[in-house]
Structures are given as C-alpha cells and as structure tokens.
Design goal:
The structure holds two protein chains of two kinds. By secondary structure, chain A is an alpha/beta fold. Chain A contains 20 helices and 16 strands. Chain B is globular and about 55 Å long. The chains are: A alpha/beta, B alpha/beta.
C-alpha cells in the first residue's frame, strides 16, 4: 500500500520520459525514448491513487493488473512487478514502448484530466528493462504438461501473446513463422528507434525459456497446410497471420523505381538491415540528400518517414489527405516526427507519380483536399479541391495507405470462411472460425490495428483454446456461421 | 539450416544443387519457387525449384552466378548449409491436357521449363521444346529435356552447337511453317520472353511466362515484386510467378528489375575482392553440424536402398 496521502500523491508531477536530442537522433537508429531510472520510477509510482475500481486495468486490452504492479515498483520489487505484468502480458518490454497507452490504461486514469495520467507505459517499460539489465527474470510458473499440442501460425504480437499464455497452461506450443526471424511486425515493421531489435529478441528468448518452440521459414498454407498440421498431431491451430498485404493508391506511375510500399521500405531496413548495406546484402533506395514523401497518416507512415530521415533524406514530407486532427498516428509519434524535422502536408492527396525515361521517380502530382461530411469511419470525408493540383519534386515515395489480409492460409484452407477483403470470420470472444479446432485473431480478423489489440486477441484465443482442449466441445458460433 | 547434399557445375557458371528441405520437397509442384538467404547478413532471393526427391527430402536448385548471392552460392559445396530456405511459394504451373505445348527455355530458364515440360508430358501433351544458350558450354539439361519431348531444338547464339541464333528464331521458323501449339510456356531473360510474346500475340496463341522479379519476403507482404498485368498491379510472389505474356507489361518488369543495378554491382565487386568473408559467414559453426547430420542421414538412406 502506498503510504502517501492522497494530497501528497497529487503534489508529485508526472515524470517526463527522457529523450535523445531531436537533431542528433534523427541521424541514427538508436532509441528515441531513453527510459526511466529507479528514482524517476519510484517518484512516478507514488502517484498512483490505488482506485477501488481501477479504470486502467479495465482499459487494458490484455487486462494487466496495473495497481498491483505499480505497488511492486513502489516497493522496489521489480522482478515481482515483471512477473505480475507477465501473467497478463508476456511482452512487457514491447508494449511498454509501442502501446498507445493514452487510449488504453492511461486513458481511464483519474489523474489524467488535472494532473496528467500515471505514466503506466513508462513504468511497464522500466520494469521490463530492469529485468533485462539485471538478468533477474520474472517468468511465471508453468503448469504440468497436458500432452496437448497447439500450432500458432504467425509470430507477431497475437501469436506471441497466445503462445505465452498457452505454454503457461502446460500445452506444447509451436509457433510457425514465414520469415527467417521471429516477431512479425515487431521485427519487420516497427523501426529500431521505437523498438530496438534486441528488445524483441529478448522477449522471444523469454518465451523460449518458458517452453515455446519456434519454427521459422514455414509458410503455413504453402509449406504445410492447416489440415496437415492436424495430421502432424496438433490438437488446435491459432491463425494469427496479420494484415500483411500492402495497399497501393492505384494512381498512375506507381510502378516507378523509387515508389515503395511502407512494408517493403520498412522490411528492407528493419528485417534485412539494408541501412548497413553493403555489410548486409539487401539494398534499399539511397535517399541521402534526396527529398522523400510518405503517403498516409498512421504510425506506419511516421515510421517510414522517420526512417528516411535517418537514412539521410534532405526533405521529409508526410502527405495526408485529411487534417492533422484525423491522423490515426499516436500523438507522441507525430510530435517526435515534427521535432526531427518532418513536414506535415495535410489535406493533400497524390494523383500521379512522375518519372524519367529510366523509370525513376522524379515528382509527385498532388491535389489539395477539403473536408466534407463524415464518412463510415466517422471522420470527415476528404474531397479534392478542383483546380488545386500542384507538382512537387521527390525522389522517393513511400505508400503507407493501409494493408489487407494475407490470403495464404485461406487459399489452401477452403473450409475457412472469410469475409470481404479476405479477413477470416471468427467469433469475437471465442475466436472460433468455421473450421473445427481452428481459431483466428489479430489483424487477420479485424484488419490493421495495434500491437496491444492483437495481443488481446491472442489472450482470448489462448483462453478459448484451453477451454476447447479441456472440453472437446465445438459448436459453430452464430457469428462465424452467419457472415 | 538447409544442408547441401549435392553440388556440381552443369555449365561454367551454372551449378546444380540438391538441398535437404523435407517439407518443401513433399509439397513443391512445377513452377513454384523458394526464397533463399545464404547467411545471417545475406539478402533474400527467389530461386525456382527445378525438382525434388520426396524420399530423401531434397529439392533441386539450378543457379546461374550473376550477382553476389548467386556467385557466392555457386562457391558452395556438398556439406555446406544454407541458412534459410522457405517455400514452396507462388502458384504452381497449370498442368492439364492442352494438346501440343511448346516449352521454351532461354539459358538457365530451362531449369524452370524442364519440370513443367515433364509434368505436361505426363499429363498427355505433345511437347515441343526449344532450348537456347550463348554457346555450347552453356547448354544445360539437354538430355533430360529430350527425354520428355516429342520434338526438341537447341540453339546457340554463336552457332557453336545446334542451330545458330536465338530460341525465338527457331520459334519464328516453326510458326512460319504452320506450327500452332495450344500453349507456349517460355522462361528466360526478359527480352527473350518479350520476343516470344510478340511472336505469339498476332496468332492468338496462349503464352505463359515465369517472371524473375526482385523479391524480399516472397509471401505478398512487401509488394516489391509488383508487375503490371492488364494495367493492374499484381505481385509476382503471391499472384504469380507465371503470367499471361500478352497481358504482362515487360517494360515495367525490365525497369523494376534494374532498380538496384548500382548497388548490385558494388556488392558483387566487394564480394569478388573478398569472397572468403562471405564463405566464412556461410560456414559458421552451427551450419556444419547440420550438414554433417544430413549427409549421414542421406548415406543411411542410400545404404538402405542399395541393401
């Protein structure tokens, strides 16, 4: 229990996250946020009001017992705090960095309005980093082996969260990954200045210590089908393949060299270390001294443009068709990007990419937009302003206009029902699909969302799979049957 | 790790590999490919699967040394191991009874064409093959191709073997003489595939080509391999690698395939100056154990088969 009075707690200011200098950091891939030290963590932890009905835990998609772990931080028991978090969230070092806490745990904090919410994300990160630094791991215990086998398809946040929970329940868990490295979007998508590679590898290693088996270079649907996995003795399969297929804009000139999907741009730099070419083999567009534009307003767009800055771009633009207020990116990421010199061009939309005779991009033709009536997403629909076209010279364009379902598993599993866009139909709570023993969750069901929402789906899947393995009962959920 | 259990040159810069990859060997169909990464710092490149042996769990890769990674691969021997091999990727070739099929392979392209020709032959088609190379020493798989062909032609650019000229010259002559196959399957350099497409287009002969786009993941995630088919974006990895040659925009394919030329050249030069650095990366400690185990397993299979 926190010995401070309520008044004393309110007098402590929210502790700021120390950051690398904006101009220096824009030239390297080191992490932007530097993390709390124990003194700062202690001060922050004292601010918790210890509400009777904590809105923070209720707002957490994986249901972390926030007040309990904060109390352990305050008591200096970092290992205990890590173990407490891991009961609900097996990737604390990752979520402590990339979760949109302002929309989840911190969004419900009573301190938020007047005093600034408790820095739950920063404390989570601190606990995980301390654990890593000291090597004193807070790994939860594992129940006795059940003799049941579960296959997880995809090693992104949904798959890893499900694996962590299922292995704790005593099941044998194998995670199949198509790429050569485990982590999915955490490895190929999110840049190291937001989420260092070693942090992801560390959390994966912890899962391995907990007993999870990983098999890389397996494309389920191609290398082995879902039916064959059942043939190999798996009792249940969780499909967590993500929304990996990049959208293009469908405007002329998108085939030009110098036009990338954000996925390709980020994969080359993050997964393949193209920023270290030629020491690493994979090349990527050399944007040193060049002007670069990213099309889109989400976190992926910001990751793309901040990566270009770090690779030496001269001018770095975000082209977004709505206004800054509608940008789906985290506020912190937008602020970081601006500090580093990214220019926002809002209410602008590309209509054509222009190239030279060698097929290289030289410019983008854009049209200015204005906001009309709200659309299906509740955001005001952007409409082109007639006669407002203009041309802007750029050498590199990165399209971050969203992704859709990866179709590989569905193509080879005909009895798996999908909906428009190829997303798998699964019950919201039980995550059961139309196929017995097969569960699906994360972006492959919902479309592109966040790391923590995918992890939430992974947890629900683990619970549902555990129930199914215990009961053996399989009823087709109306939701899965209807669509 | 994916151990190499056989490695031999078919031509001065073209090497035949058998690589242990049991899951892929069981599943692969003609026309599919794998993505290969040779070592921890390596790039991911697509290589078409030329065949497989489901019994010993190996796949066949036939590799022409043109860039850094393929030149490095062609220095590897039996007992070495490849860090990552993933597949089989892409859609298999459509195998059915069409009637008469012309299978055309330019250079190492016949390594892709041959398994397709064999499968089409087994499906009851009459097979006419045309294979071509720069010179006699570059002609590969001739005996294998002849064994599955009803008619086979060999051309060399310099006339040192078979007919002088290009595969397209031979095709042109056949078409002029009234040859009307029900399907043409062509694999080779982009200019060759384009020339085949232009010959068959006016005659309305269905023509399929297998494209060699630059890829990263090979599963549809990055879109780097996109090509224009009927004016629409298609991904060579997830929608291909075979496309209707009359709908494919070859200009875009050629330009996109050239986009890293400068980097590729720099990388190759750096490698040729110090090949030992990359060979050391391939031959890192764990690789050899895996390779030795696979070789022992292979010997056991062979001993059993002999017994």
């Amino acid at each position: 229990m926190n010995p401070l009075s309520k008044k004393e707690r309110l007098q402590i200011a929210r502790q700021e996250m120390p950051q690398a200098d904006a101009l220096k950091r824009a030239g390297n891939f080191a992490e932007v946020n530097l993390g709390f030290d124990p003194a700062r963590a202690l001060e922050e932890s004292k601010r918790c009001l210890e509400c009777a009905k904590p809105a923070c835990s209720a707002g957490c998609p994986v249901g972390v017992d926030v007040p309990a772990f904060i109390d352990l931080v305050r008591a200096g028991d970092y290992r205990g705090a890590a173990a407490k978090i891991r009961e609900a969230n097996v990737l604390p070092a990752i979520t402590g960095r990339v979760c949109p806490q302002e929309e989840a745990c911190e969004g419900g904090c009573l301190l938020q309005k007047k005093y600034g919410s408790l820095a739950i994300g920063h404390l989570e990160r601190f606990v995980a980093d301390e654990e890593r630094r000291t090597g004193d791991l807070g790994l939860p215990p594992r129940q006795p082996p059940t003799g049941r086998k579960v296959a997880i398809v995809g090693s992104g946040p949904a798959g890893l969260a499900a694996a962590g929970d299922l292995v704790q329940k005593g099941h044998a868990v194998t995670v199949f990954e198509a790429l050569h490295e485990v982590g999915g979007v955490l490895i190929y998508g999110i840049p190291s200045f937001r989420l260092p590679r070693d942090i992801v590898r560390g959390e994966v290693e912890n899962l391995r210590r907990m007993g999870v088996e990983f098999q890389t270079n397996v494309v389920v649907g191609r290398t082995v089908t879902i039916d064959e996995l059942f043939g190999e003795g798996y009792d249940a399969v969780f499909v967590a393949t993500g929304a990996g297929l990049p959208h293009f804009l469908g405007v002329p000139g998108e085939q030009l060299n110098g036009v990338y999907s954000a996925n390709e741009w980020l994969t080359r730099v993050n997964l393949m270390s193209a920023s270290r070419f030629p020491d690493y083999d994979e090349p990527v567009f050399d944007c040193r001294g060049r002007d670069v534009a990213v099309v889109g307003g989400g976190n992926t767009a910001l990751d793309g443009i901040r990566t270009a800055l770090r690779l030496g771009a001269r001018k770095a633009y975000i082209i977004y068709r709505r206004s800054e207020k509608e940008m789906p990116a985290r506020v912190e990421e937008v602020r970081h990007a601006k500090e580093e010199g990214v220019e926002l061009m809002t209410l602008v939309n590309p209509v054509e990419f222009i190239g030279d005779t060698q097929g290289n991009l030289t410019a983008v033709r854009c049209v200015r937009m204005q906001l009309g009536e709200p659309d299906d997403s509740g955001r005001r629909r952007p409409m082109p302003v007639p006669g407002s076209e203009f041309t802007m010279p750029i050498s590199l364009a990165i399209i971050a206009a969203g992704t859709s379902a990866n179709p590989t598993v569905q193509q080879t599993t005909p009895d798996l029902i999908t909906r428009k866009g190829g997303y798998i139909v699964a019950d919201t709570e039980s995550l059961r699909t139309s196929k017995r023993g097969v569960f699906a969750g994360g972006d492959i069901v919902t479309g592109g969302a966040t790391v923590i929402l995918a992890m939430g789906a992974g947890r629900r899947a683990a619970r549902a799979i555990d129930d199914y393995l215990a009961s053996g009962a399989w009823t087709v959920e109306p939701a899965a049957a209807a669509v | 790790m994916f151990p190499i259990i056989e490695a031999r040159f078919l031509a001065p810069d073209v090497k035949f590999f058998r690589v242990t990859a049991p899951r892929i060997a069981r599943k692969q169909r003609p026309g599919q490919f794998v993505i290969v990464r040779l070592h921890e710092k390596g790039e991911r490149i697509p290589l078409t699967i030329a065949g497989s042996d489901p019994f010993d769990g190996s796949i066949v890769l036939i590799v022409q040394g043109v860039g850094k990674t393929t030149r490095l691969m062609n220095r590897l021997e039996r007992g070495d191991a490849i860090a990552d091999v993933v597949g089989p990727l892409g859609f298999p070739s459509h195998i059915a009874k069409f009637g008469t099929v012309a299978v055309i392979g330019g250079g190492v392209g016949i390594a892709i064409g041959y398994p397709v020709a064999r499968a089409l032959k087994e499906a009851g088609n009459r097979i006419v093959t045309i294979i071509g190379a720069r010179e006699r020493a570059q002609v590969i798989l001739e005996d294998a191709v002849r064994a599955v062909s009803d008619e086979a032609y060999v051309t060399t650019d310099d006339g040192s073997y078979g007919e002088p000229g290009l595969v397209t010259h031979r095709l042109e002559k056949l078409l002029a003489a009234g040859f009307r196959p029900d399907l043409v399957h062509a694999v080779g350099p982009v200019p060759m595939m384009r020339a085949v497409a232009e010959l068959t287009r006016p005659l309305n002969i269905r023509t399929m080509v297998s494209v060699n786009s630059i890829m990263v993941d090979g599963t549809g995630m990055c879109g780097g391999c996109r090509v224009l088919v009927n004016g629409e974006n298609k991904f060579a990895c997830a929608d291909g690698p075979e496309f209707d040659a009359h709908a494919l925009n070859f200009d875009v394919l050629a330009l996109r395939n050239a986009q890293y030329r400068q980097a590729e050249r720099a990388s190759l030069q750096r490698f040729e100056e110090h090949p030992e650095a990359d060979l050391a990366l391939v031959r890192g400690s764990c690789g050899l154990d895996a390779a030795e185990q696979a070789l022992a397993a292979l010997d056991a299979i062979q001993a059993r088969d002999v017994g």
